[in-house]
Design goal:
Layout lengths: L16 H46 L2 H15 L5 H6 L9 H44 L9 H13 L5 H9 L8 H16 L4 H15 L12 H10 L9 H40 L9 H12 L5 H38 L6 H18 L6 H4 L9 H19 L4 H14 L7 H13 L3 H21 L1
């Protein structure tokens, strides 16, 4: 239910501060109710989607040994009504069986499965990226055999500049997309200087715990074997990864590269299908956690939502037609709730701004209610089953400069150790991906264009043409998506 008929905010400077506080808490309470009802409806929709993708991939899951059995058990807890949404809503708040901790543990199980398989994705994706890029560049070169000698590089850079600056909100992302398709030609010391400066800048307002988690994540993205359970789970993909990593890029033919590309693409597609099932289960559990946290507010649901729940409770496992009907009803109801939520959120921000303009402070109980809204929204918006330490961003103490500087130095030492003895093409591909993870690592636009110029022009004419075309493809992708 929206609050649009309750509050007139046209003259909020004339409203008493205590009344502003009351309005904040009333709108916030209404938002919590909206979030709870969306969690119920979204969990039903996701269960319907889950059934489809699970049935489509059941043979693949069954081939994963003990890890496949864990996925099946998680699925059955959702679909076999062990965790039926009505039970989640109506269970006693103090129940250990269906309490907050129970759902968190199940969610942690999904996180463990995802992290253990992601190391194989990382390692295989590097091989796939190299094969794909090499083959694509060869195709480009074949198409430009008779290219003219004089290439207007100034015009090319002007086009890149126009592309980057036409949408300043996405400038950093666009720049990193360009970096991701061009060769990395930069000295190791300069690279480390860019990485260190950018990481410190990005983590300066983080807590020690967040710094540790994020740097560990960078390590596993740079080297997938650093994942905690690498080699301990999903045995088939571990063996395939080990086998594929023996590929010798130095002496490979285009046919060899094509075979590698096809093999790695097939494996990555398989893993993605498994990940899709695990993540969907985790997203449903996120919503069960939200429902559990807001249980007291969900004792009086809107009639149309109660009707949907009755339909859902009566829906047989094989009744696909009724499931589609329920899915559409949920989708329509969510749309109306989101409209109410958006309207109320604008009002809430306006009132909060006015409240703090008066140098007013919330009491601890009221502040906890606002924090609860942030907490449940974090679960609702969490699409990757993030660690809770990063999900809530409620650090007590910001990291000090000395600790951060040392932590980043240790990370750079880790990178340096890992690339020693590594084939040049693998080393540069890993270093480039790490560079692209960091939000605009270049201090100034000139630094970016110097990097671009050095990467593009320090190559043969054939490679230069291929690199220009790769950048042009990035630009074209944005043009065609408008």
């Amino acid at each position: 239910m929206t609050t649009k008929n309750k509050f007139d905010l046209t003259n909020n400077t004339e409203i008493d501060t205590s009344e502003l506080k009351k309005l904040i808490l009333e709108i916030n309470e209404n938002q919590l109710n909206n979030i709870g009802q969306m969690a119920i409806l979204e969990s039903i929709m996701m269960e319907i989607d889950l059934k489809k993708i699970y049935n489509k991939n059941i043979d693949l899951i069954n081939n994963q040994g003990e890890d496949g059995e864990k996925i099946v058990k998680l699925y059955k807890k959702i679909r076999n009504k062990d965790l039926d949404i009505s039970l989640v809503i109506n269970s006693n708040e103090m129940s250990k069986e269906l309490g907050y901790g129970y759902f968190k543990n199940l969610r942690a199980g999904c996180q463990d499965l995802l992290s253990s398989i992601s190391g194989y994705v990382t390692e295989i994706s590097y091989l796939n990226e190299i094969a794909s890029e090499t083959l694509h560049k060869d195709d480009i070169k074949r198409g430009y055999v008779d290219v003219v000698e004089n290439i207007d590089m100034d015009k090319f850079y002007q086009n890149v500049y126009k592309f980057l600056t036409e949408d300043m909100d996405s400038l950093s992302y666009r720049a990193m997309e360009v970096v991701s398709v061009i060769p990395m030609r930069i000295s190791r010391n300069k690279y480390y200087d860019i990485i260190k400066t950018a990481i410190i800048k990005g983590l300066r307002s983080s807590s020690k715990e967040e710094v540790s988690i994020l740097l560990d994540r960078y390590k596993t993205i740079f080297n997938g074997t650093m994942e905690e359970d690498y080699g301990q789970r999903f045995d088939y993909y571990f063996r395939k990864t080990h086998e594929l990593k023996k590929f010798d890029f130095k002496d490979s033919s285009l046919d060899n590269l094509l075979e590698l590309h096809n093999d790695t693409t097939e494996i990555l597609t398989e893993i993605d299908r498994i990940v899709d099932v695990i993540r969907k289960i985790g997203l449903i559990l996120n919503r069960y956690i939200v429902i559990n946290l807001l249980k007291k507010r969900l004792t009086k649901l809107d009639e149309d939502i109660l009707d949907i729940l009755k339909l859902w409770d009566s829906c047989d496992e094989e009744n696909n037609k009724l499931e589609e009907e329920i899915f559409d009803k949920c989708k329509d109801r969510i749309k109306s709730i989101e409209e109410d939520f958006g309207e109320d959120n604008l009002k809430l921000q306006e009132i909060i701004t006015e409240f703090y303009k008066r140098e007013s402070q919330m009491d601890e109980e009221s502040n906890n209610q606002l924090l609860k809204t942030q907490r449940v929204l974090s679960y609702m918006n969490d699409m990757s089953l993030e660690k809770e330490e990063l999900l809530f961003q409620n650090q007590i103490e910001v990291v000090d400069d000395n600790y951060l500087d040392q932590a980043v130095d240790n990370f750079i030492e880790f990178v340096d150790r890992n690339i020693k003895g590594m084939p040049n093409i693998l080393r540069k591909t890993r270093m480039r991906r790490l560079l692209c993870l960091i939000e605009f690592p270049f201090k100034q636009p000139d630094e970016f264009f110097n990097y671009l110029r050095n990467s593009i022009e320090s190559s043969s004419k054939e490679d230069l043409i291929a690199n220009i075309n790769l950048v042009a493809e990035v630009i074209a992708k944005y043009r065609t998506s408008k």
